[in-house]
């Protein structure tokens, strides 16, 4: 049985997005990609284009850099959603709002309300050096809290390193 909520975490360029895409490709459901990144520079434009090309025509893309609640509210039975990624969403939201508890509550409320299975991709940021910059430390703490909150609500949590999955909670669907 496919999990109602799954979290896929990993470091930058760990293969977590590709692994999450492949997990959803196993289903017979209509696939929806909730994109949280914004193409603010040429490098990000190339990255977004590469991700989109890799997914192909089977995926319907919904742009939601700020309002994931509305994107998720548009879900329906017979679909499965991939939200890629919680880290970009949090970064986008923290640019204009500073109360991380409210942001985390908004995120958990949105993913919990999905009427279809949803897989959330997020960066694991707790394995590095604590930054000297106050804003970076604030973001690091908020990202860690967000990941923990999603993991608590998730049926499946998978850490991906070097493209390889390690199940932390639950069981992979057969």
Give the end-to-end Cα distance, rounded to a whole number of Å: 7 Å
Class inferred from helices and paired strands: alpha/beta
Sequence of secondary-structure elements = EHEHEHEHHEHEE
Alpha-carbon Rg, integer: 15 Å
Largest sheet: 7 strands, mixed
Give a count of the beta strands, DSSP E runs of length 2 or more.
7
Shape: globular
Overall pLDDT confidence: 93
Strand coverage percent = 15-25%
Determine the fraction of residues in helical runs and give it as a percent range: 40-55%
Please work out how many helical segments DSSP would assign.
6
Low-confidence stretches: none
Give the strand order, joined by hyphens, for the main sheet: 3-2-4-5-1-6-7
Write the layout of secondary structure elements.
Elements: E1 5-10, H1 16-25, E2 30-35, H2 42-55, E3 59-63, H3 68-73, E4 79-84, H4 86-94, H5 100-112, E5 118-123, H6 134-153, E6 156-161, E7 164-169
Parallel strand pairs: 1-5, 1-6, 2-3, 2-4, 4-5
Antiparallel strand pairs: 6-7
Helix pairs in contact: 4-6, 5-6
Task: Write a structural description.
This protein has 174 residues and is α/β, with parallel strands linked by helices. Helix content is 41%, strand content 24%. It is built from six helices and seven strands. The chain has helices at residues 16-25, 42-55, 68-73, 86-94, 100-112, 134-153; strands at residues 5-10, 30-35, 59-63, 79-84, 118-123, 156-161, 164-169. The chain has a seven-stranded mixed β-sheet with strand order 3-2-4-5-1-6-7, sandwiched between helices. A hairpin with a 2-residue loop joins strand 6 (156-161) and strand 7. Helix 5 (100-112) packs parallel to helix 6.
């Amino acid at each position: 049985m496919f999990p109602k909520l799954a979290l896929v975490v990993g470091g930058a360029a760990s293969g977590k997005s590709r692994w999450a895409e492949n997990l959803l490709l196993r289903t017979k459901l209509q696939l929806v990609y909730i994109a949280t990144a914004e193409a603010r520079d040429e490098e990000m434009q190339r990255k977004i284009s590469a991700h989109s090309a890799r997914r192909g025509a089977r995926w319907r893309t919904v742009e939601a850099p700020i309002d994931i609640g509305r994107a998720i509210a548009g879900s329906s039975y017979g679909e499965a959603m991939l939200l890629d990624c919680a880290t970009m969403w949090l970064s986008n939201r923290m640019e204009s709002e500073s109360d991380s508890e409210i942001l985390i509550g908004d995120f958990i409320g949105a993913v919990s309300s999905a009427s279809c299975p949803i897989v959330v991709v997020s960066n694991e940021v707790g394995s590095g050096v604590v930054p000297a910059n106050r804003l970076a430390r604030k973001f690091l703490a908020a990202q860690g809290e967000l990941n923990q909150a999603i993991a608590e609500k998730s049926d499946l949590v998978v850490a991906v390193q070097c493209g390889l999955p390690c199940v932390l909670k639950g069981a992979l669907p057969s």
